[in-house]
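G., the chain you wanted modeled:
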Amino acid sequence: MKTTSIRSYYSALQEQFRLQSSILTDVLPHSGERGRNNEERFREFLSRVLPKKYSIGSGFVVCSEPSVPVSSQTDVVLFDEFHNSPIHRELASHVYPVEIVYGTVEVKGRLEKRDLRKIFEDAAKIRALGQYRYYIKYESVAKSDAQPTKQVVGLAELHSAVPPRAFVFAYEQTGWRTLFEFVDSLREADREFAAHIHGLAVLDSDWYVTQEAHAENPPKYRPIEGNALLNSINGMLHSIGSVTMMQMSIDRYYRGDT
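Predicted structure as tokens:
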């Protein structure tokens, strides 16, 4: 029996997504319900293809610094549930400390030019939260100066400024004739914000775009035409795999002055 290549497999999945969105989701009469249906379909897909170390949810991202604004409602949150857990788990959405977040995904049924500014604005908010990631590690320390040979468990706090990775997943787009026109629009929308999009896929056009790190003036993008879904998941795995993860410093959230 001949083994199906991963490229062929993802090509079939991409076509399945297209049919589900254009036929099944469109039967829902309310635009809000169509949007939630597209989000839930993508979350379910990620749960099948990502390693189990990445939990998948939706909600708000916060940090321990009260002066930093909370994120907007986030369609997909990729987070750690081995070492940590969300601060609040409510029926409608969860609240995630930024320390436990690997990445976020904005899901669009139909991506339009007017959406880009909000996408970069939301990504910039989470990137700003990412400056306040604090973790702890346990180590042996002397009980006191008077008893230097007696060891007890102490903890040290570690800081990481590596922000969660930001992704966009669109089922279809309207407003661009070519991939290069699309990249020009991304560059223009990004000028205003200190944001970074690690991967953006548009399924119906079969486009995938990544943003080059530390190239802000102007932002630089790498566009790829073809295999959008495969490139999206491959890029996501590399991006979230580079994010530091360990036990967070929960005391920073539970102190009375925060």
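The mean pLDDT is 87.

Shout if anything looks off.
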